[in-house]
């Protein structure tokens, strides 16, 4: 787990892991990104939880890398957001799917605070899917799959399946796969780091599977909802596509991201994101590790 100002939520996650530890041997490792609230006091109250300081607010990918270095051998790594609670049987279901499918990564079904399924499954970022999302947002969930980067159809969340990637709130990563893929890309301070990691899993021949019988509740607010983070989300989508596509394709994708904000620019919030997307010189001012 990677924590930052997680005092309010961390005990709930640890309690849910204790329930799972009745059937599974777990080692809980926390990398703390310079919390100044009561997070460290909460963690210190659990003598069987190992926690490490990253030395600053280095970002989610960097925090995962710090925690991963404390893993031993070929241990499977269950990466969890601190604002999460795993439901009973979640870890067992993830492990069973990994064993039966040979998957390199398995993700659970995520539920929101009301117990409703959160659409966490994604397709590889591409221009057409981004354009569909720009034009329609979350409306018309039954539109053709090619017109959305998010898997929208509710029935898709009822059965196990291979996916391109999923939101990084909860990922069970096979130990061999973690070693082969290597460290998470720390150039993503927050957002798109899981897109990148799971792409590299697939490029090495690994499979990513979704398991609906493994359930976890996600507060979805642990990373915050500030305007600065909304800008970072948009910009990191562009940076990700630039990493794997050059020239015209990357330029068109950036234009589609800008179009999404332009369509919604009646809102000051979206106008600010649009300015961030088109003003690359401002990208260095977005949230990131200490410089």
Q: Can you summarize this structure?
A:
It is an enzyme of class 2 (transferase). This protein is α/β, with parallel strands linked by helices. Helices cover 38% and strands 16% of the residues.
List the helices and strands and how they pair.
Elements: E1 2-3, H1 10-20, E2 28-32, H2 39-44, E3 49-53, H3 60-68, E4 77-80, E5 84-86, H4 90-101, E6 105-111, E7 121-122, H5 127-136, E8 161-162, E9 165-166, E10 170-173, H6 175-181, H7 193-203, E11 208-218, H8 227-244, H9 247-263, H10 268-278
Parallel strand pairs: 1-2, 2-3, 6-11
Antiparallel strand pairs: 4-10, 5-11, 6-10, 7-9, 8-11
Helix pairs in contact: 5-9, 8-9, 8-10, 9-10
Structure description:
The chain is an alpha/beta fold. It has helices at residues 10-20, 39-44, 60-68, 90-101, 127-136, 175-181, 193-203, 227-244, 247-263, 268-278; strands spanning 2-3, 28-32, 49-53, 77-80, 84-86, 105-111, 121-122, 161-162, 165-166, 170-173, 208-218. The protein folds into 2 domains: 2-218, Spore Coat Polysaccharide Biosynthesis Protein SpsA, Chain A (Alpha-Beta Complex); 227-285, no CATH class. Helix 5 packs parallel to helix 9, helix 8 (227-244) packs antiparallel against helix 9 and helix 9 (247-263) packs antiparallel against helix 10 (268-278). The chain is globular and about 50 Å long. Residues 1-123 form the Glycosyltransferase 2-like domain. Keywords: Glycosyltransferase, Transferase. Its EC number is 2.4.-.-.
